[in-house]
Design brief:
- The complex is a heterodimer of chains A (about 375) and B (about 525).
- Chain A is mainly alpha-helical.
- Chain A has a domain of about 200 residues.
- Chain A contains 14 helices and no strands.
- By secondary structure, chain B is of the alpha/beta class.
- Chain B folds into two domains: about 230 residues, 3-Layer(aba) Sandwich (Rossmann fold); about 170 residues, Rossmann fold (3-Layer(aba) Sandwich), CATH 3.40.50.
- Chain B is built from 17 helices and 24 strands.
- In chain B, helix 5 packs parallel to helix 6.
- The longest helix of chain B has 16 residues.
- Chain B is globular, with a radius of gyration of 25 Å.
- At the A-B interface, helix 9 and helix 10 of A face helix 10, helix 11, helix 12, strand 20 and helix 13 of B.
Chain lengths: ~375, ~525
Amino acid sequence: MTSTLADTSTESEAGTVAPIPRWSAIRSRARRLIAFLLSSLIGLVIGGVIIGITGHNPVDAYRALVDGALFGPNFVNLVSTINRAIPIVGMGLAAAIAFRAGFFNLGGEGQLVLGGLASALAALYVPLPAPLLMPAAVLCGALAGGLYASFAAFLQFRLAVPLLISTLILNYPARDFATYLTNHHFRDIATGMNETHTVPDAARIPLLPGGTELHAGLFILLSILLGAAFLTKRTTLGYEMNMAGLNPRFARYGGISLQRLGYTAMFASGAVAGTVGAILVLAEFGRYIDGALTDPLYAWTGLMAALLAGSGPFGVAAAGLFFAALETGAFGMEQTTNVPQELAQVLQAIIILLIVSRTGLRAGEDRTG
Amino acid sequence: MPPELELHSIVKRFGHVLANDGISMTVDQGEIRALVGENGAGKSTLMSVLYGELRPDAGEIYLRGERQIFRSPVDAIHAGLGMVHQSFMLFPSLSVFENVIYGVEPTSRGLIDRRRATGEVRDIAERYGLRVNPSAKVAHLPVGVRQRVEILKALYRGADILILDEPTGVLTPQEGEGLFETLRALRAQGKTILFITHKLHEVMRLCDNATVLRDGRVTATVRVAATTPEELSRFMTGRDVLLHVEKPAVEPGRLMLGVEQLTVLDEAHRHLVADVSLEVRAGEIVGIAGVAGNGQTELIEALVGLRPVGAGRVMLQGRDVTHGSVADHRRAGLAYVPEDRVHVGVALGASLAENLVMGFQSRPPISRRGLLRLDGIKEFARRLIHRYSIKVSRASAPASSLSGGNLQKVTLARELSHDAPCLIAEQPTRGLDIGAIEFVQQQLLDYRAKGNAILLVSAELSEIRALSDRILVMLEGKIVGEVPGAEATESRLGMMMTGAHEEVTPRAVTAEGVP
């Protein structure tokens, strides 16, 4: 994370003492990858032992897992992995944007819910011509998530409520508020479920051509990913966020207003979470279904991806994709081998613990070196 | 008779860095030996090896002719070594004697024998002339007395050889003098002292012999009586160093920084800074001297917008910035070299370039319309690296790979590049090598010569005296005196810093803990 600004080819004309190998940046990235792969491998071995203890064949189980994540007829499983990765990576990026600037946003779930609900209601009740409806609904989702996250920032800066607490706690009212609205005011009574009416077709995020379940939400996510990368590497705002994240006292001393930056970062973070909610509603379900955004724990899996990858956008995307593959693979594993899919969560937890312990070790080494 | 201490060809390697490259030295009993060298010369490593904190890769340690192998400081303490660290290792909430006996408590029937403990501590204190009240609480003691407690701790454990690591850094001149008295008394009683320092005038005043290290090797061992500071600094740096900066006369110009009756309060509404008024004019360096913790830090934080002002006014070039943000202050023409360069002055995890452009990020050539210009950044960083001879291989290297002196150059380079008419510099040379100190001081004088105003806070009285046109003395949040730079002597400043010539009884020197 160190050399985001200057080109690595910059050589100083000043006397060079003990030249730091240009390698170091690459090496640390490679080390991180190796740590990740190694941890995954150890996790898989431990998981294999557990599978063996429960009386199944680990090799078969893992074959089923890989098949369930990546293959299937017409790569249908790969498609569902990608579709599952969209909310996970999206929520990971949402968390990472705030982390990057040194602010904690544990309220992704609430922002996701409000974003999804807002987009559904906008699609249902805002009279807009067809081509504008979908973008407007997505925008409403982003706005709702962003404003809700900003409220946590307001609590922090005005009332000194730590973000760690406020964002976490604000998840509950958001969820309950959404349940209340769908239950009492915007419910589609015909279905008997706690959900809104179906949004008009014009508001739906369309499927991509090719006959698969891949939808255009993928492009929204990719633009968020590229946007986040561009923000952190190429913009003044991104620079200020990086510096505040690395050392808030330095940023403040340099004249950066941490408060303004906090509002901006939290709004951006919440807006991404809200957009993810909108994608799920407008692409996957076509309506807001109570609980559908929260039950799969997208926000929390995304948060873990962000914690693991250390807030670099592409690392978050890779980690999120990995978790998505693990989860969809586990469905397939359960179907073909009877190994319970909860095992995937055990695997996930083991791998995370291993990675975290390894990075902890590395941080210690760095300090002495 | 074998020498008290002999180190033979000590080698200590960290990765591919040779911190100690075959160091040998011999110290006689009853000697005060200076160990001098620039930062990174290997002094601390050598002492850690001697004290059992590090195992040498090669080499031997002999005490009175006997080979020693220290697996931990416990072994070293057993063999009669004692260490006084730079930062004290004391429990502030415990009393003096409790700190002294900690870990080696005299007990009777499983309980600590307090009476015996206080008695023993008092005896040792008296025998070596260390005036301390054994029952005083450490938290209430001034720094100089706390240091005495550290020495007492070592003596209580039977130390014959005392290692003192940069012991005067935290002391007032008077306290420093007191320490020297103590050390001379210890020498008279046959104790051997290893005195680590980079302040050559201390070596000249106190020590019998000096061992000079450079790049992990001994470059000279000399009798102090037969050497000069100039010679020692040449051994340390390998070149001639100006020990006294030349300060050309500059006529003070218009008012740059005006402070009127500034008051800063803490949460409990106590005065941290009380009613401070001062002026700094163009072409002038105004120094603030004072014992650390007398409101200097809070004053400066308030002046730069990092801390709210309770009352009073701060004017920068005629603009009222009293309640402005840091950005407001900077826009009004203020640059600031902070005291804590590691935690405030840089972001260690960021690259050198990122550290250098802080404050410039919103304008060309660094950025345009919110977008960073990588070429502009590279060029900017390259220019500063060159101009301030920052030793680094590339602008994208992390700041954490830089030495302390180079980090200070980064902060200085950045702040001076703002071309702000007013600079506040806090402890600009603390912890730096002789060579780096010379560089920084010269930069400050050049900045002044360009017609800028500088407010300088430093714990080094020699630095304050060498650089300042006027010196203000701070005590308990107030300015208690002003002395023209030319007329300031260390003793006069020291008296004012401790309130000795005033009618006040300041906290810093109350005799609490001294019977």
